[in-house]
Amino acid sequence: MAKGKDVRVTVILECTSCVRNSVDKVSRGISRYITQKNRHNTPNRLEFKKFCPYCYKHTIHGEIKK
C-alpha cells in the first residue's frame, strides 16, 4: 500500500543573520542544519537558536523551503 503524507518530515534550518548580511557585504557562507519535525504537532515554521560558524555566535536559524 502506498503511504499518504508522512507525519515526520525533514526540514532545513538556515541562519537568518547570514542571509541578511550577504546582501550588504561579501558573505563567507550560510550556515544550514538538517532536522526533522512532526507535521501534526508543529504545523508552522520552526525557529531554533543554534551556533553559526560563519558569524561565530548563536543566532536564530529558521526553516526554509527545499
Short note summarizing the structure:
Keywords: Plastid, Ribonucleoprotein, Ribosomal protein. With 66 residues, this protein is mainly beta.
Rg calc: 14 Å
Mean of residue pLDDT values? 84
* Principal-axis shape: elongated
Secondary structure tally: strands = 4
Strand order, main sheet: write it out: 2-1-4-3
> Strand fraction band?
35-45%
Q: From N to C, what is the helix and strand string?
A: EHEEE
Distance between the termini: 27 Å
The largest sheet is: 4 strands, antiparallel
Unreliable runs:
none
Tally the structural domains: 1
Q: How many helices?
A: 1
Distinctive features:
14% helix, single chain, 4-stranded antiparallel beta sheet, structural constituent of ribosome, ribonucleoprotein, ribosomal protein, 4 strands, plastid, elongated
Q: What does this entry look like structurally?
A:
By secondary structure, this protein is mainly β. It has one domain: Rubrerythrin, domain 2 (Single Sheet). The chain is 14% helix and 44% strand. It is built from 1 helix and 4 strands. The protein has a 4-stranded antiparallel sheet. The radius of gyration is 14 Å and the shape is elongated.
